Structures are given as structure tokens and as C-alpha cells.
Amino acid sequence: MTPSHFIVNVTEADFEYEVLSYSQNTPVVVEFWAEWCQPCKLLEPILENLAQTSGGSFRLARVDVDANPNLALRYGVRTLPTVKAIHQAEVVGEFAGMQPEERIRDFIAHLEPPAEDSLAIERAESLLKQQNWLAAEALYRQLEEQDPANPAILLGLVKSLLAQGKGSEALFILNYFPASREYASAELLRPLAETMSKASKNELPDITELDNMFRNSLRLTIKGNHPAALDGLLDVLRQQKRFANDRARQVFVAILELYDPQLDFIKQYRSELASVLF
After folding, report:
1. DSSP state, 5?
2. C-alpha span between 120 and 108 (Å, rounded)
3. Which of 23, 19, 46, 54 lies closest to 104, judged by CA?
4. Tens digits of per-residue pLDDT, 125-149?
5. Helix or strand or coil: residue 200?
6. Average pLDDT of the chain?
7. Are strands 90-96 and 82-87 parallel, antiparallel or unpaired?
8. How far apart are CA 228 and CA 210, in angstroms?
9. Contact 122, 98 (CB under 8 A)
10. Helix/strand/coil for 93
11. Residue 203 φ/ψ, nearest 5 degrees
């Protein structure tokens, strides 16, 4: 075993201090092993490498079960190697037997505490789900200053802007949106941003009755009255399914994308859209 503060041999005498007490602040991965165990010899260098390169995100504690049978009994070890993750003195994950290295890396990755910016993004996403658009925008703008090219942050900011009727600001971000897995979601929002921007500049056609119904729906959207806007768009689509080169449907879908898809009223509107179109 490579000596390291992040890798320790522990015994029944010091387990409480080296593992349980230590785990109050940092996760500890406990490897139960024995000298005669061949799979243990394969697992050991993988765990050691992860511990050495983790920068202290977890400690590896190795327990020789032959020398410490009471610990093996206490933690119900029946197969070697057995690995248990302990955080705040509780077992929070485990596996038994040799595993593929990718599986082991994934196991370790889930023990690392989330980065501060990840927690902030989660808070911002929570604000979106709560429909607290203004607070979400404020937090996303703070995050954007720290990480201006992060697509998750940009997507959340676009949603918070659109929900408040700020189409031109959202469109500016969408025009420079980075290639990423969030790109497709961002493109779903583009029709709403473009149409909002035109509506705010009074650039939408007003020739037919359907034109006026569509314009009114956009005005309601900009004001944040999304249910009324969706109802108006459904009325347009009932009369002309591909109104304005399919723009009415695209705007309808984009408004739905601003909300938590599990909300009952969003599910209902998706169902109504499907019944109108199909």
C-alpha cells in the first residue's frame, strides 16, 4: 500500500477514530480484504489510485479481516473484497466482489460532495420549478458572471427571462448558445424568444382574425399570463393547425418548456395540444 494521509490501514482499536470520526467531515471508503484474497489484489491498486488522485475528497481505509474479525462481523462482511462507503458514521453505499473499474469510479464519484456552483445551479433550478422567475434570473445572472459559457446556466437564464416576457434578452443569449447537450432544449425556446421580440416591437402581422388572436396570445405571454396565452393559442390551432408556418404550435410548446413537466396543468395542456393536432 502506498503511504498517504488519504490511505490508511485500520484496526479494531482505531476504527472509531480513523473511520467513524473522520467520516463526519469526509467520506471514508472502507475496503475489507485478506492476504489470501486474489480479487482483493486486483481491487487494491484501483482504489489506491482513486484515493491518491481525489485530492482528499475521500479517505481509503483498509481492514484486514483476518486480523480484525470483529469489524468484519460488525459490518456483515461475507464476501471479499467488500467495500463500504461511510459518511457521518453511517454506511451510505457498498459493493461486494471485484467490479469493473468504470463501476468503481462511478461509485466513488457519487461520494464526492457537489461543488459549490453545482449547488447554486440546483437552487436556481428549484426557483424555476417554483415559478419564482425573478429570483431565478438574479441567481442565474450571478452564476453566469462566474461561468459565462456554462450551457446549463444559460438555459436556465433564458427560461427565467422568457417567463417574464423578456424575449429580446433571451434571444440574444440563444443566438450565441454553445454546442452542448442543452442546445436542443435551447432551440425549442427560440420560436418563443423570436416571436416575443417581434411582438414587443409590434412587428407581427395583424391582417386576419387569427393574426389578432395570435398577437393577443403573445401579449398575454409577455405579461406572464401563460394559461390564458396557452388557451388562446389552442383556439388558433383549432382553426389552423399550422398557423404562421407552424409558429403557433412552436410557441405553445416553448411556453410549456418553461415549467416543470410533472405539473398537472402542463400535462393537461400537452394532452390538449395532441388532441388538437392529431
Report:
1. T
2. 22
3. 46
4. 999 999 999 999 999 999 999 889 9
5. helix
6. 93
7. antiparallel
8. 16
9. no
10. strand
11. -105, 5
Residue 242 makes CB contacts below 8 A (sequence gap 6+) with 249
Instruction: Tell me the three cell numbers of residue 218.
Output: 403573445
Enter the C-alpha cell of residue 121.
445551479
Q: Which amino acid is at 13?
A: A
Query: Which residue carries 454546442 as its cell?
Result: 179
Verify whether residue 40 is a known catalytic residue: yes
Our CA angle for 80, 82, 86, nearest 5°, is 160
Catalytic residue among 40, 222, 244, 256: 40
Write down the residue that cell numbers 476504527 correspond to. 15
Active-site option among 19, 28, 37, 251: 37
Cα distances from 4 to residues 7, 17, 52, 59, 131, in angstroms, run 5, 17, 8, 10, 48
Give the model confidence (pLDDT) of 91-125 as tens digits. Answer: 888 999 999 999 999 888 877 555 556 778 889 99
Our answer to whether residue 253 is catalytic in this structure is: no
